[in-house]
Model the fold of this input.
Amino acid sequence: MSEFDQCEGLRSDVAPAPEGWEPRIVAFLCYWCSYTGADNAGTARLKYPPNVDIIRVMCSGRIDPELVMTAFARGADGVMVCGCHIGDCHYIAGNHKTMARMPLLSRVLADLGLEEGRFVHEWVSAAEGEKFAKLVRCVTEQVRRLGPLDWPGRMRERGVGRGLEPAAVGGLR
Ligand code: FES
Done:
């Protein structure tokens, strides 16, 4: 059994990714729980791929959908949003906003043609280093199977997203 057998919903119906290509994942983590969970994973020396760029925010309620769209527009192949479990938010109800926004954002992204698995929203507590490491492994593998995204290119093809081209937002990578 490979370690990815434990990842739910991994797709196998996609073409292999280009050789040498590595997915780039952006993870927005709330400071009080999920970032500490990621730290915990590091301290416990749990292995996860180096493909993830972590952006720390004070609360997941701070994560405006526009930040997620901007990450895709600037070259992310996958985006993760993680915050405290419901009831644990340091700001009491910040993650209630997250809980309302992220499913809506997910539907908008799906309407725009984003494949399932490129955008993931999950609760990760400070004690869940193991969960964080597994989540990164699974998301990275899922995105690797889906291949490069090229969101600006896709949006150009669809005739939407003007103003989000790399040059307009300061360049990619
Ligand atoms: S502080 Fe973690 S979700 Fe609000």
